[in-house]
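Narrative of activities, Objective 1.

The group set out to show that a structural description can be obtained from nothing but a protein's sequence at a throughput compatible with the screening campaign. Below is one input-output pair from the validation batch, recorded exactly as produced.
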Amino acid sequence: MEWPIRKVVHKMFHMRRLLTGLRVLLSPFARVLAPAGIILPLALLSACSPNAGSRGGPIPYETPPTFGAPDAPRASTFGATYRVSTGDMLNITVFRVDALSKDYRVDLAGNIPFPLIGDVPAVGRTTGDIREEIARRLGERYLRNPDVTVAVRESNNNNVTVEGGVRRPGLFPVTGPMTLIQSIAAAGGIDPTQGNARRLAIFRQVQGQRMAAAFDLESIRRGEMPDPEIFPGDIVVVASNNNRGIFQDILQTLPLIALFRPF
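Output recorded for this entry:
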């Protein structure tokens, strides 16, 4: 019985390679053939392919040539109502106390590690809120009527957002070259109970418009797809069965034949 089984497996392997080749060959003509109703055979090819349902969703996986670097971040203005984010750099000055007066980076937990008083919650608060708490806590034990000023020196334009089916979704700093695999690793990896490693999307601002492209992490790991570069401001979404949101919805609704489009 072993020989017939090996023959069947061998034939299935070659059939898979044939279907993959046909999809690559026909995909450039999908937009032209769609009006004539010839898009159905492409869908049938996908349905016949092994593990066809494991990727899921309509965003294609071919990376468009124009899906490159995002727009340069705009200069930010920081008024009294600005809410601090993870990765922001704050300049905190305590009058006549040089040892405490310097720049502080908001850490991944959303806090400012401040000498003497410990962590100060910062994310989602204004500079006025942070100033009042620091002054109060310093005044309770260390200084009499401390004069504190807080200003935003640098915004969180250096962050990437990772959400969906990962272990630790959130904002992560891009301090140097970063790839998609590295951004997922920063978020603790794919959540094995709900994340789909074969269905990820990068959302990016390009030429004034928000674009999206889909990727298969397993194919990237096997060297079958390139590991795309991640830029500050990118939003990486891992498909998840349990989480819903605007990017998860968009990931499921972009049209089949559009590699990317504004939304």
